[in-house]
């Protein structure tokens, strides 16, 4: 399988972080920025680093990026440049263009001009970090959406020796048990007859709010 090819426009903190991670993951990465120092800084890390103004359509065409797998528009401050490069990237035929937005209006514009995905890196990271701070002490959480998480929780003492049907965790706590860990063995999709012991870890899915209440119950 040939390596995936991505272009990253803009080498601010977000663009650099995306470009470095793509390169470390074995992808071919082209970065474009109009600041010489930023280009120099990335030259040894990515496949190609080009100093250019992304709003210049001729320059964009000369990059030969039509067959790339995806583009990341990592220009936040310069609204005009962000919108123009999104349009140009779509016009050149790049199938997946992900763009960073500064605010809701910026996001709307990016979607209207053809961005396939719009992200708010700082806002999204802030929300995730806050959730992890709230839930983090003893949960291993994977956020599935802003309202639901998949988590590991320790079995309660009072559950010891009872099976899942008797415990009726779904009705009682409104969480779904999708796995039971006993030591290193994980039983995915446990049956209703599965007997829980107090040293088990349960893998559950539920609403963050409910899981939070569940957490305080356990404290
Ligand atoms: P961050 O918030 O992730 O640091 P910025 O919006 O501050 O992102 O950074 C955007 C980057 O895009 C800067 O490195 C800037 O030099 C570059 N940039 C802005 N406008 C253009 C343009 N027209 N052509 C090429 N690069 C640009």
Automatic annotation (TrEMBL):
Record domain RCK C-terminal: where: 137-219
One GO MF annotation is: monoatomic cation transmembrane transporter activity
Q: Name one GO biological process term.
A: potassium ion transport
Span of domain RCK N-terminal: 3-119
InterPro entries found in the cross-reference section: NAD(P)-bd_dom_sf, RCK_C, RCK_C_sf, RCK_N, Trk_Ktr_HKT_K-transport
Q: What is this protein called?
A: Trk system potassium uptake protein TrkA
For this protein's source organism, the top of the classification is: Bacteria, Bacillati, Bacillota, Clostridia, Lachnospirales
